[in-house]
Amino acid sequence: MITHRNFTTNGIYSPSIPKESPEVHRGELSQLTSPSQVVDGLRGSFDNAVCVEYGRRGASWDRRFFGWTAVIMKIRLALLLTVIFSVASIAPSFGAGERFALVIGNSKYPDAEAPLKEPINDARDVAEELKRDGFNVDIGENLTGDGMRRAFERLYGKIKPGSVALIFFSGFGIQANRQSYMIPVDAQIWAEADVRRDGFSLEMVLGEINSRGAGVKIALVDASRRNPFERRFRSFSAGLAPVIAPNGSLVMYSAALSSVISDNGSDRSLFVRELLKEIRTPDLMAEETLNRTRVGVTRASRQEQVPWISSSLAEDFSFIPGGGAGPKPSSPPPPAPPPVVTPSPPPVAIAPPAPPTPTPTPAPSPPPAQVAIATPAPPPPAPPPTVVPPPPKQIEVTVPPPAPPAKPPEGNTAIAALADDPTIKSLTARLNDNPDDGAALYRRGQVYASKGAYELAIKDFNNSLRLNPKDVEAYNNRCWARTVIGDLQAALKDCNEALRLRPNFVDALDSRGLVNLKSGQTKNAIADFDAALKINPRLTSSLYGRGIAKKRNGSIPEGDLDISNAKAMDPNIVKEFADYGVQ
To answer: Which residue intervals of 341-453 are DSSP H helices?
Structure first.
């Protein structure tokens, strides 16, 4: 039934529908009592019909408009909340994000004289502490190359965007080609190329972790030890190299760049002891934790061991999130210096906040033997270890006195025992298949020399040089082996040839200094050791040899200073020179 509200189903007025007759309205207006009222009502109805229709139409549009507006506003609010929550979930939470750690302690290196005492205990202590601090910890002990590779792959597989990844390594480390390498227990290292083949570059590991999306990357490396591989390739540089790490990284070495520390005879390292003490301090940011560790180690060792730190963290991170969670600044007063990159020399006065607990020594005043390493030489003060040395000072080197009688240190029983050495066995098998394998000859010569079988070493170096007359390393190693057994004339010739092929070759300078020292040519020995120390101021053998040469030349105080500095760097240096026949 169509009423006077002529609307279609969609509420829009339809003029095509004929207006109804007055009779239609009688039922609706039957309550009116007089005809005049009926007429007036009908007139008002018809006069206002269009207005009523359009008024109702407007009200309908208003309802629809504001209804859709409310719906759109709700949708927009929902979308906004979704975006906010998604962004919040993507942003890394450094206080409570997922934490993953790989802890490695390598102590049983077959090429070392004895297993290292500290790495296993240190690794276990660090792993337990990190577990308490919310890390998912994977620990490995005495890992081979394959074992370390699998351990790193497991770590890479766990990392999620924004998570925290930490590496702790204790064992032997080597720098090669300006990178630091962590060495597995089964590494076969005889030349620098072997380090890159068998070792694990710290920079590459950090880069891989970064590519997986880790927000915070931390590397704690306790590998600044003198190792058995040093004498095998004389281009070896002691200690570790600086790390070029990706943004968001925090790296700490247990000792300064290009320096080594001696075994303290304890079952735990000083570095790890101080590190754990600071990690357990609540509400400390990671950079401040490591800075305090550096200060504690420096003071406890009386500046003989100064850890190195490099930081590019963009966000705050605390080992113990504690009650404050989030990126809250550390609770102690913050006079902490910027922990960007601490230099190699001992920065004694740059303590961050007040030092932790060590109270016995009020200030590092006891005269550390290492402070004067670069200054004892009378000619130049030997400042930084930049590799821009002067010429190698080959003065009067061709006039050594007659060689003293040779005293080969190897006996028949020792030589027979070498036949069972697994490395020598494998190299000998290679040479049985191919007698002209120059690399196998050179490596076996190095093994013989490292085990004191100098005559056998010289034979292998002879054959290696027959195949490659320009092998600088072989000339230098043969020079060194001949010097030890007292064949000084031939040794001097080898060293001179090595320096002719590669001027300023630091290891050949060191070897020739030993030749001149044993020959009695003290001035020439001092010149060679000076030249070597200008290239590498921390070359312990040159520092100790120069000290002996200076004392023999009459400069006793200066010689004593060199000797004491060398002994502070490596207490075994005295025995090493005694084995060379120099005391």
So the answer is: 412-418, 422-433, 438-450
